[in-house]
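Quarterly update, task 2.4: pyridoxal-5'-phosphate-bound model.
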Amino acid sequence: MTTIKNNLQAIQKRIQVAAHAAKRDPADISLLAVSKTWPASVILAAWQAGQKAFAENYVQEAMKKIHELSDYAIEWHFIGPIQSNKTRLIAEHFSWVHSVDSLKNAQRLSQYRPETLPPLQVCIQVNISGETSKHGVSPENLEILAAQVKGLPKIKLRGLMTIPKATQDSYQQQQAFRRLRELKEKLNGSMLDTLSMGMSGDFEAAIQEGATIVRLGTAIFGERSKGQ
Ligand SMILES: *Cc1c(COP(=O)(O)O)cnc(C)c1O
């Protein structure tokens, strides 16, 4: 369990170095721990090491952990594909959703968000690399979706998220992230302040291009077991 603590410290250091190289304030970059496949005990170890925001991809799996960890002040983020029959659970149990890519699901999230909770913080997922296997709205359809989502009562549109095509080439990584930044800038009558981009293999390139939330799993917890 001390490895998680060490990993978190090493990552915070890398975030600082990347931020300084980009002439940015490291305080403007938050680390989101992607805990899919890992049990509550592992999440708790990271929490005890100071990590407070965690992200899950699958509602069923997440619900179990959210209940197990209900005594701890954890900010839960949903980053997986949204099935419409799961929108109620997502709206009730998460603070953030990074993967909104249709008006229908955004409407349902708004409709089911309990009155007692603050608005759901939302990013629209954009399919930058155009891979058909990827979720996300196309860059062409982003502007209209953003305008529609902004009008929903129990949702606060914060920004954009992307999962670019996996590549080791840092130039290509950077191009994809730059694209997302430019799309956000084009929308910025909308006062968006969030770019959710960068994973374990490419977060430094994402910080270079303006990431405000990096989503890391492997770098914190180690390799996920196969088939998950
Ligand atoms: C799994 C996942 C991550 C984390 O990926 P790592 O490479 O393990 O850091 C980030 N974002 C999304 C949407 C994911 O599904």
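Highlight for this quarter: Strands lie at 30-34, 53-56, 75-78, 96-100, 120-125, 155-161, 194-196, 213-216.
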